[in-house]
Amino acid sequence: MDSTTENSSNPDFKGLRVVAFESRMAAETRTLIERFGGRAIIAPSMREVPLEDNHAALDFAARILAGDLDAAIFLTGVGVRELFRVMETRHDRAALVAALGRIVTVARGPKPVAAMRGLGLAPTITIPEPNTWREVLACMAAQIELAGKRVAVQEYGSTNRDLNAGLEARGAIVTGVPVYRWTLPVDRAPLRVAIGAIAAGEADIALFTSSNQVTNLMQMADADGAGGALIRGLGTLVVASIGPVCTQELRGRGIAVDLEPEHAKLGHLIKEAAVRGGSILARKRGTSRAAQAAGRGEALAQRSDPQAADAAQRGALHDHPIMRACRREPTPYTPIWLMRQAGRYMPEYRRVRDRYSFLELCQQPDLAAEVTTTAVARLGVDAAIIFADILLPLVPMGVGLRYEKGDGPVIDRPLRSAADLDRIPPVAAADALGYVAESIRLVRRALGDRTPLIGFAGAPFTLASYLIEGGSSRQYQATKTLMYTESATWHRMMEMIARVTADYLNMQIAAGADIVQLFDSWVGSLSPDDYRRFVLPHTRSVIAAVRPGVPVIHFGTVTGNLLELMREAGGDVIGLDWRVDLREAWDRLGPGVAVQGNLDPIALFAGAAEIRRRARAILERAQGRPGHIFNLGHGILPETPVGHVIALVDAVHEMSARR
Questions:
Q1: Which CATH code is given to the segment(s) 17-46+185-285?
Q2: What average pLDDT does range 267-287 have in this prediction?
């Protein structure tokens, strides 16, 4: 087990009840939790079962010896050892090692490296932390040409579809080599005890160290009819995830993650949970630091310490209706905010816009903050959304982005080839887009603890389509042509955009955003197969990288055929446009996610009675289920009467009030 030497804070669970689902290192996990003052509830959630009659492993051996493979990826140490155990029933180890030495071998992290070296095999490529499929793909693409290569992937428990899709998109011919499967433990009583404790509110922190733990835990809970109670219980305690892959699985099942350690190691996870768990739990359960403090000393310290004040403020917003809705918790009424609520339909905005260009308005924090807060005050909505634009990350890419009056955004130097992509300079969000962070800080101070603030960014596909087309498009001909004919370039570009987008969102969160929304405005132009292959892995990587504990709204338009795939890509809330029935869409998405939407923006041109009728119909389709945020199916249109917008906000609050 990994030891930690960080001395920034004293790790102390202070008697909190800590659930862990470790199997192989169950004893070590219990020891460390108790050393840090926690009460351990250890519930092994999985066991490795070798495959009987593993023909895939024997076929792999035959192909290696025949020189029929170009590369092999080893994902786990246990898998390496089990694979050799099976192969050695038919073949000599020395011959196998020699054959593997003639091809490219890839080890995902230290455990497969150790297992390979123990067999006398030195890996060609070693993948650095955090050892996810993204690092595997990036390292391989940087060191070898994948097009036409025959690549075998040693699987562990289940197929990594993202890795395989990424390899295939770069032209590789992929063969999976399953070695073992994950199943539930023989003794399932401890797991049932843990599920019961979480569902009953008798646990305080849950530690997850693999995505398979999440899968098995939910399988067990669903089989016992306790799946819903388990998810609700996890919403009231601190959920700690060891890293991005595990976080992705949790979020995909509608479970919010509160912390990840800096290093994806068991020891670091437990220590960070001991350091931060108590304060996170206090916020989640509605207890602010100030309320816990004895006397006035801590309140005075908060006034002199901006970070302490920020923590207290975020604690106060934790139980705001829109924050509760993101967590699918009951609310006193259905919260509402509106896309483009600070826009051209408001005379206050037009007066500012008459003096400045759109880009100038975005880049001057005091003006952007003024426009943002004016809309909240005028409309009475339940959240502010920072005034900015989804295309701002393209400005530092040097592609000549400009905004033409009446024509929208135009890109003078669109990206159409690998050479064009190579000319894009590295983009550091904090340096290039710091004015957005400053706008958020100004709005955050103005709003205080009254109203949550939403940050946002364009999703990778939507940014890519603008970047390639040179502006808006109807058919996305250039985008799809590049996607189909230059898939390696496409994925390199999407990975670059995804990194910038994740950094940009986390910069906004650090500045004070309470929620973030990912806009995939143009993704409805794709078929499900194209979305799954060319978009889903990159969108998922952005959402998985968002700081744990901050809700993510994942929104797209014309996405009725993509809802389940968007759910798979991630997000605490899925935004719906007006082209789908809210009740049917929510049923398709499942109970582990909140929804946002979905009034047709044109309805705001009707009279007050029709606006109320349509709003009531959407509220009825939501059926009062926790987790509904009212919004339009897209942004407010420029000619919309302001009074009609206010009438909608008032109607939603009035008609949804829970008595």
A1: 3.40.50.10090
A2: 88
Mean pLDDT across the chain? 89
Burial level of 597, CB count in 10 A (0-12/13-18/19+)? buried
DSSP-derived 3-state class of residue 308 = helix
Residue extent(s) of CATH 3.40.50.10090 domains in the chain: 17-46+185-285, 49-183
Q: What's the CA dihedral at 191, 327, 590, 44 to 10 degrees?
A: -10
Question: In whole angstroms, what is the distance from residue 410 CA to residue 413 CA?
Answer: 9
Tell me the CATH number of domain 327-656, given options 1.10.10.10, 3.40.630.30, 3.20.20.210, 3.40.50.80.
3.20.20.210
39: three-class secondary structure by DSSP: strand
Which H/E stretch holds residue 345?
Answer: none
Task: Give the pLDDT score at 407.
Answer: 60
Kindly give the residue spans of alpha helices, DSSP state H, lying in 55-132.
Answer: 55-65, 77-87, 93-100, 110-118
Q: Is the dihedral of CA 129, 132, 134, 136 positive or negative?
A: positive
Phi-psi region of 398 (alpha: psi -120 to 50; beta: other; left: phi over 0): left
- Model confidence pLDDT, tens digit, residues 434-447: 999 999 999 999 99
Amino acid at 554: H
What is the side-by-side order of every strand in the sheet holding 39-42?
Answer: 39-42, 17-20, 205-208, 238-241
Burial classification of residue 364, based on how many CB atoms lie within 10 Å of its CB (0-12 exposed, 13-18 middle, 19 or more buried): middle
Asked whether residue 296 carries a pLDDT value surpassing 90, the answer given is: no
User: Lowest-pLDDT range, 128-132, 379-383, 419-423, 587-591?
Assistant: 128-132
The answer to whether 562 and 523 have CB atoms below 8 angstroms apart is: yes
Q: Cα separation of 330 and 29, whole Å? A: 35
Catalytic machinery residues: 340, 344, 353, 389, 466
CATH class of 49-183: alpha beta
Least confident window among 68-72, 474-478, 523-527: 474-478
Beta carbons of 432 and 396 less than 8 angstroms apart: yes
Please answer whether residues 179 and 155 qualify as being in contact, where contact means their C-beta atoms are separated by less than 8 angstroms.
yes
Would you state the structure tokens that stand for residue 287, as one six-digit string? Answer: 């207890």
Handedness of CA 454, 455, 459, 465 (dihedral sign): positive
Most confident option among 252-261, 404-413, 530-539: 530-539
As annotated, the residues of the chain forming the CATH 3.20.20.210 domain(s) are 327-656
CA distance 59 to 72: 13
- DSSP three-state, residue 181: strand
Whether the full predicted model's pTM is greater than 0.90, yes or no, is no
Mean pLDDT of 414-421: 94
Whole-angstrom distance, CA of residue 546 vs CA of residue 281:
20
E strands, 144-247, are: 150-155, 173-178, 180-183, 205-208, 238-241
